[in-house]
């Protein structure tokens, strides 16, 4: 670890004098969300990958719930992250028009209520450890959005001069941040997963005596792929498998830290991904398993992702949830489990799915319709019940039968096509009319065009 970074982190995350966990029945559960980047539906053992080993993540499925129809409302990074944290379609919070690049001046408006904001109001310690990608100017970073501490990178790991050709005018540098301070330019990406894991564990150690929320949005397996020396070359799936198995190690380290303090069963642990795999990169991209498509597209492989949730007080072990749920549901569901009141004046699109996750016999999805938006925020399709309609092509698929979207049934169900077209347009119009703005920040926190040539690594 960089010595300067280690010194800063030691001060900000130094544990208070060790106290036993609070055994009060009034203490709400801790929350940990690990959110990976560009990992596909089929990239975990518990979702059927034949060679990638993910025993720690699979443990969440064995001891909690595995969701088989879990959606993110965008097939790319920034909009998907905005939806997770706010419980809203990206269009509702102005974050729908593709991803944020280093030269962009806007980001998620700090007036929005993130999961960190609502838990902070209940006295939670909050930390973000990994890739942010919701705005990187002053007023837009995690510590402006409800987090007490941030350790990681402000945007994707490929947005870096180190990985771009000489003379490329869109070349930028990648900073590694602690809160808003640049600790290092062009960090060794082989260590990103490890450094963010260590910071998460330090945060847990420092806050084990009180409720906390740790958000761990790992930068990997977004390309370019990197694994640390301990993992590179160790999986049967090549470098991509090495990266996923290191992410699984990260989950193991976090679970072990929770167990050391006797608070694992008092913690909601969630694993999900921001969108599907980046298929053009072949062996450097992941797998959507039985689903068609991948990142950037609106086929199931672009937006249906793995989701696992462990919470012994609220979820029976080994539950498989086959109803539709979305990343937007996590905010209201966490609110219900933690006793946090959401702002009734602020419209969100997610639903409380505690009944689904509790394994109630007749529980059904509260999502009456789910809208698909393109990577650039245009309305693309709608899912309702078993039916999925893609608006431009007019293709209609029965997803209970045809998960790979092979058979277009539009001609046999013209009335379904017309009904879904109307409902998609009506719901999109409601979201559009109630959309809230992003925040534009004219002055950069640092010069995104700075060129820093790092010393060659070992």
Short recap of the structure:
The chain has 458 residues and is an alpha/beta fold. It is built from 10 helices and 16 strands. It folds into 2 domains: 28-368, Alkaline Phosphatase, subunit A (3-Layer(aba) Sandwich); 370-431, Arylsulfatase, C-terminal domain, CATH 3.30.1120.10.
Tell me the layout of helices and strands:
Elements: H1 3-12, E1 30-36, H2 55-63, E2 65-71, H3 77-86, E3 106-107, H4 115-120, E4 125-131, E5 149-153, E6 175-178, E7 181-185, H5 192-207, E8 212-216, H6 238-260, E9 267-273, H7 300-303, E10 307-310, E11 319-326, H8 330-338, H9 354-357, E12 370-373, E13 379-384, E14 387-390, E15 396-398, H10 414-433, E16 439-440
Parallel strand pairs: 1-8, 1-9, 2-11, 4-5, 4-8
Antiparallel strand pairs: 2-10, 3-16, 5-6, 6-7, 9-10, 12-13, 13-14, 14-15
Helix pairs in contact: 5-6
């Amino acid at each position: 670890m960089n010595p300067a970074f280690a010194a800063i982190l030691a001060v900000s995350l130094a544990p208070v004098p060790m106290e036993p966990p609070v055994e009060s029945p009034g203490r709400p559960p801790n929350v940990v969300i690990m959110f990976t980047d560009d990992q596909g539906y089929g990239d975990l053992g518990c979702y059927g990958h034949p060679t990638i080993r993910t025993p720690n993540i699979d443990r969440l499925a064995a001891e909690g719930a595995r969701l088989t129809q879990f959606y993110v409302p965008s097939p790319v990074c920034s909009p998907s992250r905005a939806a997770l944290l706010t419980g809203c379609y990206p269009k509702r919070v102005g974050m729908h028009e593709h991803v944020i690049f280093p030269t962009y001046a806007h980001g998620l408006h700090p007036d929005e209520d993130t999961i960190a904001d609502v838990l902070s109001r209940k006295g939670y310690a909050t930390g973000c450890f990994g890739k942010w990608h919701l705005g990187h100017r002053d007023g837009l970073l995690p510590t402006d959005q409800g987090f007490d501490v941030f350790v990681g990178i402000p945007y994707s790991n490929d947005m870096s001069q180190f990985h771009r050709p000489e003379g490329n005018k869109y070349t930028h540098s990648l900073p590694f941040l602690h809160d808003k301070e640049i600790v290092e330019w062009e960090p060794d990406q082989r260590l990103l997963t490890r450094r963010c894991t260590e910071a998460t564990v330090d945060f847990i150690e420092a806050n084990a005596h009180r409720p906390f929320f740790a958000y761990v949005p790992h930068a990997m397996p977004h390309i370019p792929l990197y694994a640390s020396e301990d993992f590179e070359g160790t999986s049967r799936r090549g470098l991509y498998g090495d990266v996923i198995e290191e992410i699984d190690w990260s989950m193991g380290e976090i679970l072990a830290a929770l167990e050391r303090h006797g608070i694992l069963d008092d913690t909601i642990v969630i694993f999900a991904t921001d969108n599907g795999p980046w298929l053009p990169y072949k062996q450097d991209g992941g797998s959507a398993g039985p689903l068609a498509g991948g990142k950037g597209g609106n086929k199931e492989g672009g937006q249906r992702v793995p989701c696992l949730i462990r919470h012994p007080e609220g979820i029976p072990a080994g539950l498989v949830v086959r109803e539709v749920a979305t990343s937007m549901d996590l905010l209201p569901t966490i609110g219900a489990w933690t006793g946090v009141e959401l702002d009734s004046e602020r419209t969100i699109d997610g639903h409380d799915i505690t009944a689904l996750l509790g394994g109630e016999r007749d529980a059904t999805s509260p999502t009456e319709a789910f809208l698909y938006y393109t990577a650039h925020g245009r309305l693309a399709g709608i899912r309702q019940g078993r039916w999925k309609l893609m608006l431009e092509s007019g293709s209609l698929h029965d997803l209970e039968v045809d998960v790979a979207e092979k058979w277009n049934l539009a001609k046999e169900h013209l009335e379904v096509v017309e009904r879904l077209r109307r409902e998609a347009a009506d719901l999109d119009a409601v979201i559009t009319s109630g959309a809230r703005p992003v925040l534009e920040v004219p002055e950069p926190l640092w010069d995104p065009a700075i060129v820093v040539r790092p010393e060659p690594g070992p």
